Amino acid sequence: MDTPAAKPNSRFTAATPGRAMLLALAVLLGVGGLSQPLGQALRQQLQQQALLNPPVDMGLRGNLGQMGFAAALGGLRSLVASVTYLQAYRAWELVAWARVDSLMALTCTLQPKHANYWDEAAWHMAYNAASHYLYNESIEPWVRGRLSEQYKAQGVAILKTGLSHLPQNAKLWHTLAEIYQNRTHEPKLAAQAWLKVRDLTGQARYARFAAYQLAQSQEASDWKTAYAMLRQAYAKADQRTPSLIENLRQLEQRLNIPYPQRIPEAAPTLEKDPAEFGPIR
Q1: Which of 23-37, 114-128, 242-256 has the lowest mean pLDDT?
Q2: In whole angstroms, how far apart are CA 136 and each of 17, 37, 49, 55?
């Protein structure tokens, strides 16, 4: 199948840390709420119903700021990042998404050059948290949708921040492309991200992914770009995947490509005689 591979709901890989270690470092840690808060009245209502975690004082990090916070910890940054990461694992088990967000943000602040932290933080917001609220029937539908969209946007924001530290990291661009494609449904932005992955990895299949997204645009100019890209891929026999052929067929129809110029693959044929399917109703 010529599509990105599905990923598991959790990317946490480590075990919960020991209680002694957590207590020893507890004075250094602080957590907060979503970066893009809801209205105060709505937030209080959700907190009263135990549907949203209340923000907690950010403590040392809030007083010193990101750079001062990291500098104050000195050589302990890696150790504290490991602890906050493992605390986020526990918060994920408790379905405490605001706490997961805060702890992962703290972890990323401490270790901004670790792509896996940014990747996991964005994944949990854009996929796990967003889906949790969208399908939570104990919340009003309009609130569900708002919370879900907010967490998707938070996932995008996390990746953009991560890419400001690691602009050439193909993994982060890949996850951003997936979120634009599958979660926020922004095909042009997804196409740009897929092309960036292609440039960084040199793998042609990501150019096809970009073209598939442009083919979903509402603009004819994007269809022309997608068609040109897919025709270029089609010229290489090893890239003639079913997805490529199907997208080319659709684009040929939309762009009214003359029949002599269309790809030669025949349309699928029925294995049975149409009469065997019964009368048409």
Answers
A1: 23-37
A2: 30, 19, 13, 21
Is 209 part of any domain? yes
> Cα separation of 203 and 4, whole Å?
13
Residue with tokens 């990090």, as numbered in its chain: 61
State how far Cα 125 lies from the chain centre: 8
Q: Are residues 50 and 160 in the same domain?
A: yes
Average the pLDDT over 51-61 and give the result. 46
**Average pLDDT of span 213-223:** 96
The answer, yes or no, to whether residue 22 has pLDDT greater than 50, is no
Statement to judge: residues 181 and 199 lie in one domain: no
What tokens were used for 21? 């270690």
